[in-house]
Write a structure and sequence with these properties.
Blueprint lengths: L3 H27 L3 H30 L4 H30 L12
């Protein structure tokens, strides 16, 4: 099993990719109508809150003792997968509003 430091490095890299995708989503909305931006405002807020929760999980994971971190790892991975899926859904909805191409999904990273 991967050690704690490797898990943290991989998750930090995944968070950076998610941050880039969130930024692209926000920039994709920049030229849209007020109505479109309004429809996505709540979804953006939810995605950001989930991202922040994932970062808090990482901090808990980092501070966990030798036994606890193994249990926390699965929750951290699940949180990432859920956020990645939600972000993909946001892009799917945005594509219905315009011909935007989503960034790479980051699957398997």
């Amino acid at each position: 099993m991967a050690n704690k430091e490797n898990v943290l490095r991989r998750m930090a890299a995944k968070l950076q990719k998610l941050d880039a995708r969130l930024a692209e989503l926000r920039s994709g909305l920049a030229g849209k109508s007020e109505q479109v931006r309004g429809r996505f405002a709540e979804e953006q807020a939810k995605l950001q809150a989930e991202r922040e929760a994932l970062e808090r999980q990482m901090k808990t994971f980092k501070e966990a003792g030798a036994e606890a971190w193994k249990d926390l790892r699965s929750g951290l991975e699940k949180g990432y997968q859920e956020l990645n899926k939600a972000l993909g859904g946001a892009w799917k909805h945005l594509r219905k509003e315009k011909d935007a191409e989503p960034p790479a999904a980051g699957k398997g990273t």
